[in-house]
User: Which sequence fits this backbone?
């Protein structure tokens, strides 16, 4: 009989080995799934993990990797700070949308003025939009002890409705011949977020993601606020004994994650998406939750996890078009990754022992 | 000396090992009918493992037990109970939302109808002088009354051997007296009692024989009535003990002043503080006693800054701090150590270095513009480990990897080494072995001699009488007027503590 036994100290080896083991297990069982569906599993795995990096169309797909990884990392880092403290912001998707709308609105309001301050101003507005949207669940939690998971999640649907209203109403392109959607920022240089190195897929969002990852790492490992975040998540009573003010921490963590999600939305709408539209690249806010956990809530881990997740997205799209796999199969594959990660994660704190029967 | 015919339970060569620990090694002793037998030893000496084997909760690796001469191998507590072994645990297993009779019924194999059971509970409680109303909710009972529920639950099974694990830790002196009367009565009726404790005076007044364990081995037997407490303690510890030396220091100005402090308890089923007032001068130790759950935890929270009040309710060195949080109160000169080490005083999964930062950050200047000076923090953690003899492979180890006693030494040391003006400690030596407890008490007295004002909250009366200058009792959230320890008798202390539990009437039925 197998028995789990708590380790006296968390295992350093398994802390780093679990993501690798989880990826290998996902490849194996995912391959099994694809084989049962009648597709060559090796071809699928190669299409997902190899082709985007080194295949025939890698010159294009590699760029797509950074385009997708940037916002995922930016949002996941913000979320991870809250998750570390036991504050569960599930509504990053809504904060992402509100950041995009606020930032875009500032740019569109001054169209077509050309001024170098416009884009920085839009960045601030984007961060503000996400921050303000996250403040709603934060203040409701600190004042009335509401559940931030439910409130932030429900506000996503409110934000989606506002997005629909924006693209068909108050931000609609007056020269758009009636089609929904705002003006395209690619035609407005002062407010655009172009690719910085041609073909790399790197735009200001990717740069921001890297800066934020380093800043978050320093915060968590070197700064007292990072210590308080970690302490509150691990031992809430010890945190109060240390002197953490739980309400202030909720406001700080929700605010930070909201602002970063808002930034991601702003960079997305001015760059890869180009315009506010009813269904402008949505979904990053939810996927970032997976990225945050896949990266073990560690800034460096999140950067790697963001790139890995982007890979399964880009590769998954390739697999479904080239090998005619249903999109659901690819989603199952991505879900497996999280499943195995959380499953193998047990080994960090527990070891498996053979127990004698009885 | 042992008469074969009267031996009830004999333990022969019992050994039990856990991964990395030998809990019991070749333990041999026997309990005779009607005998009150003490099992004596420090924390971790193997007492609990031994009785768990007797009660069928743990299986020995080797050795054997005999009951009335026949082999005794209980596979479960149910089997042990049907043989005639009953046990009262240190931690009660009662449902607060059920009444006494329902709780008793839950612990029985074949409970009789409620009405009959209630009548039997009443009969047994009167017979043994343990007043208890079968229809009362357990949630409304005091700790002493809850223990009576457990005892009566055992007595209803008509046991031949009653095992009691540290039964007096939650009782007032008067309640202890009542319990002892009951136990003596049981013993005179032929029930053997195995009494587990490290309180030596109790054992000397109650027990007929004692077996002393140290590090899992029997290191001796003694006649407790013929030995002094000191002799027993030295057998238990395996070393000679020196009681802490008091340096009569100058009593200085008032360093901690608490006036009319009333705070609602944040803990479910907790006790709110009501108009608590006292002062402690530099160089003075105030001991606060009281049965667990009478507001001790709340008092610590209100002093540490986790619970706040209006500014002038708490003053440190004349400065009002009642509305300040823990970090500001530490800056003002106060350090505190809560009772619950793992989870409250220390974060279980964090290293000792991080746990040193937890409270030492403000007074030891471990941050610079918010950035943590990890090398200085590590140095401080290592200094605490060295000065307080914390047994650990290093400062990088997670707090939960330390034994309770070692973590306690770390937590107390972490506070005492911050050169505080005011020290507040709840249960400073809880779960610490005798030698370490003595050194912790000495360290507290040393700080007082250096001019700190000290508040020690403890359930160990002997400890308070040993180190305190003045003495007060918390009772349902109210603090009695502090009185000088000198000249105070145990009876007076008992009356300060008792009152509310209605213990005065307890043995009238017998009288």
Assistant:
């Amino acid at each position: 009989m197998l028995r789990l036994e708590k380790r006296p100290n968390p295992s350093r080896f398994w802390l780093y080995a679990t993501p690798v083991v989880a990826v290998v297990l996902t490849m194996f069982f995912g391959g099994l799934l694809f084989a049962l569906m009648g597709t060559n599993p090796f071809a699928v795995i190669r299409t997902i993990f190899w082709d985007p990096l080194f295949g025939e169309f890698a010159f294009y797909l590699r760029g797509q990797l950074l385009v997708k990884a940037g916002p995922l990392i930016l949002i996941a880092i913000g979320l991870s700070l809250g998750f570390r403290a036991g504050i569960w912001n599930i509504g990053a998707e809504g904060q992402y949308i509100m950041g995009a709308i606020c930032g875009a609105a500032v740019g569109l309001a001054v169209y077509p003025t050309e001024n170098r301050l416009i884009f920085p101003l839009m960045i601030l507005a984007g961060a503000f939009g996400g921050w303000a949207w996250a403040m709603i669940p934060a203040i409701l939690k600190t004042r009335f002890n509401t559940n931030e998971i439910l409130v932030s999640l429900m506000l996503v649907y409110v934000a989606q409705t506002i997005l629909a209203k924006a693209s068909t109403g108050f931000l609609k392109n007056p020269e758009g011949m009636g089609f929904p959607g705002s003006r395209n920022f690619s035609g407005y240089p002062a407010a655009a977020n172009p690719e910085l190195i041609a073909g790399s897929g790197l735009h200001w969002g990717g740069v921001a993601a890297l800066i934020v990852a380093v800043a978050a790492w320093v915060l968590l490992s070197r700064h007292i606020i990072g210590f308080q975040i970690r302490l509150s998540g691990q031992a809430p009573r010890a945190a109060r004994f240390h002197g953490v003010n739980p309400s202030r921490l909720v406001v700080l963590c929700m605010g930070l994650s909201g602002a970063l999600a808002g930034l991601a939305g702003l960079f997305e709408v001015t760059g890869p998406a180009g315009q506010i539209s009813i269904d402008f690249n949505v979904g990053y806010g939810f996927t970032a939750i997976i990225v945050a956990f896949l990266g073990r809530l560690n800034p460096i881990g999140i950067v790697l996890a963001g790139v890995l997740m982007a890979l399964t997205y880009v590769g998954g799209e390739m697999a479904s078009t080239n090998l005619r796999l249903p999109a659901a199969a690819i989603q199952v594959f991505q879900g497996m990754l999280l499943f195995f990660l959380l499953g193998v994660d047990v080994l960090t704190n527990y070891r498996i022992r053979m127990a004698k029967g009885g | 000396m042992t008469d074969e015919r009267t031996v009830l339970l004999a333990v022969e060569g019992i050994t039990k090992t856990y991964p990395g620990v030998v809990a019991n090694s070749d333990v041999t002793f026997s309990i005779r009918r009607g005998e009150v037998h003490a099992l004596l030893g420090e924390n971790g000496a193997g007492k609990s493992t031994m009785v768990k084997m007797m009660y069928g909760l743990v299986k020995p690796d080797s050795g054997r037990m005999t009951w009335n001469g026949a082999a005794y191998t209980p596979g479960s507590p149910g089997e042990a109970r049907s043989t005639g072994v009953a046990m009262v645990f240190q931690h009660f297993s009662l449902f607060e939302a059920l009444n006494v009779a329902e709780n008793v019924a839950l612990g029985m194999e074949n409970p009789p109808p409620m009405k009959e059971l209630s009548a039997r509970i009443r009969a047994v409680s009167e017979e043994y002088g343990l007043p208890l109303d079968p229809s009362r909710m357990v949630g409304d009972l005091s700790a002493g009354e809850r223990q009576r529920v457990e005892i009566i639950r055992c007595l209803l099974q008509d046991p031949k051997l009653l095992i009691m694990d540290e039964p007096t830790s939650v009782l007032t002196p008067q309640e202890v007296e009542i319990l002892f009367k009951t136990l003596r009565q049981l013993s005179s009726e032929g029930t053997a009692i195995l009494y587990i404790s490290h309180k030596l005076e109790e054992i000397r007044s109650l027990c007929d024989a004692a077996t002393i364990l140290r590090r899992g081995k029997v290191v001796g037997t003694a006649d407790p009535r013929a030995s002094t407490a000191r002799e027993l303690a030295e057998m238990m510890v395996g070393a000679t003990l020196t009681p802490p030396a008091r340096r009569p220091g100058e009593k200085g100005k008032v360093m901690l002043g608490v006036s009319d402090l009333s705070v609602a308890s944040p803990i479910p089923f907790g006790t709110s503080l009501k108009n608590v007032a006292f002062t402690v001068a530099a160089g003075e130790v105030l001991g606060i006693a009281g049965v667990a759950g009478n507001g001790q935890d709340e008092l610590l929270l209100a002093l540490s800054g986790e619970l706040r009040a209006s500014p002038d309710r708490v003053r440190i060195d004349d400065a009002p701090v009642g509305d300040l949080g823990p970090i500001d109160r530490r800056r003002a000169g106060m350090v505190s150590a809560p009772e619950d080490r793992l989870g409250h005083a220390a974060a279980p999964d964090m290293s000792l270095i991080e746990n040193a930062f937890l409270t030492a950050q403000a007074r030891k200047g471990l941050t610079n513009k918010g950035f943590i000076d990890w090398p200085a923090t590590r140095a401080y953690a290592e200094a605490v480990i060295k000065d307080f003899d914390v047994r650990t492979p290093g400062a990088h180890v997670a707090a939960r990897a330390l034994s309770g006693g070692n973590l306690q030494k770390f937590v107390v040391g972490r506070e005492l080494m911050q050169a505080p003006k005011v020290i507040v400690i709840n249960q400073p030596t809880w779960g610490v072995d005798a030698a370490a407890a003595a050194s912790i008490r000495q360290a507290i007295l040393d700080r007082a001699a250096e001019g700190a004002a000290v508040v020690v909250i403890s359930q160990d009366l002997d400890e308070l009488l040993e180190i305190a200058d003045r003495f007060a009792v918390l009772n349902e959230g109210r603090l009695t007027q502090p009185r000088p320890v000198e000249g105070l008798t145990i009876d007076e202390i008992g009356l300060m503590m008792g009152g509310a539990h209605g213990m005065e009437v307890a043995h009238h039925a017998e009288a």
Observations:
- The CA atoms of residues 131 and 502 of chain B lie 10 Å apart.
- Chain B touches chain A through 32 residues (CB under 8 Å).
- Confidence is low (pLDDT under 50) at residues 499-511 of chain B.
